[in-house]
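re: ur question from earlier - yeah i can do the single chain one, its not a big deal. heres the input i used so u can compare w yours
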Amino acid sequence: PRSLGEKSVNETSVKELVFDKLVSALRTVAAKSTLFDLNSEREKFAKDVKEAVERDLKHNGLTLESVTISSLDQTDLSQMNAANVFDAQGRKRIAEITQSAAVETNRMEREAEQKIKEKDVETQQQVLNYDLKLQKSEADQARDVSNAKTEAERQAAEFRIEQEEAVSKREVEKQRAIEAAKIEASKKADFKQSGKRPDRC
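and the output i got, formated as tokens:
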């Protein structure tokens, strides 16, 4: 804080005069909020401290122009007196906050680990599903190829049988024609020898 008196005073005198008042005001205002709230609302903290201390300073002929909060930090535990009720409460509160923060940090770390594991399981499941789909696709493709090959072989066999049957049929017809021609020729020869004309078939 910066203070100016209505009469000329040196800096040391001002510090000695207002130190206790400022410390008291700071503690009074700070006790109403958490350290985190005070840190995030420094302007309000400074305003409340100014309002709390400026009336007392006027009685000493000083005017408090402004209050600036430059930094905030907790008191070192080594400087706290366990026999002092305020320090004891402070130590207790610090322990509660740090323990709660440690528990919360541990919880968040466990949750993060769990999410990583769940993501790994999900990824593995996706890979497994992909492999299964790939295997099924390959099996379907192999089956289709096998079916197509079997069908082609069947059609080729049918065509070969049909061709063989056609050749066999033509051969039979050819033999029949030859036999018929031989019979006809034999009849003609017999009729010539007998002098009769052969009957027309």
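The two ends are 146 Å apart (CA to CA). not sure if urs matches, ping me
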